[in-house]
Design a protein that fits this description.
Elements: E1 21-27, E2 30-35, E3 40-43, E4 47-51, E5 54-57, H1 63-68, E6 75-81, E7 85-90, E8 95-99, E9 111-114, E10 121-123
Antiparallel strand pairs: 1-2, 2-3, 3-9, 4-5, 4-8, 6-7, 7-8, 9-10
């Protein structure tokens, strides 16, 4: 992973602030979140979408609708809490929470990301 040596690599997610979630792609065993301007997050771990209408978890009946409902919303904050979650909070109060709990990993990593400034790619 290429990052600025003076900065913690997870600070990169702060670059999502002010960007809109531009697309969601469901691929066989992972999903992809794309944000305006290029940042992309491939997710291989369980996800929870929280909004006024309630919570939807990966594999819930309405999960896809809840996640796609986030498209076009602007990110207010993004943070990583190691071994707990990657939280993407939107300006309207809704959230996407990606599990970073090691027992939830479907493989060697929970998240693969690329397209951020000062980083070619990275994994959590």
């Amino acid at each position: 992973m290429a990052t600025d040596a003076n900065d913690h690599p997870y600070k990169l997610f702060e670059q999502l602030r002010g960007r809109e979630l531009s697309s969601v792609e469901f691929v066989r065993d992972y999903l992809q979140l794309r944000f305006d301007g290029g940042p992309t997050i491939n997710v291989m771990s369980p996800v929870v979408v929280t909004r006024a209408a309630g919570r939807s978890r990966s594999w819930d009946d309405q999960f896809r609708n809840a996640l796609c409902g986030q498209i076009g919303k602007s990110v207010g904050n993004a943070e990583v809490v190691e071994q707990l979650h990657l939280l993407i909070a939107f300006d309207d109060g809704s959230e996407i929470t990606i599990s970073l709990v090691p027992d939830d990993y479907g493989g060697p990593e929970a998240v693969y990301y690329h397209g951020f400034d000062n980083a070619e790619w990275g994994v959590i």
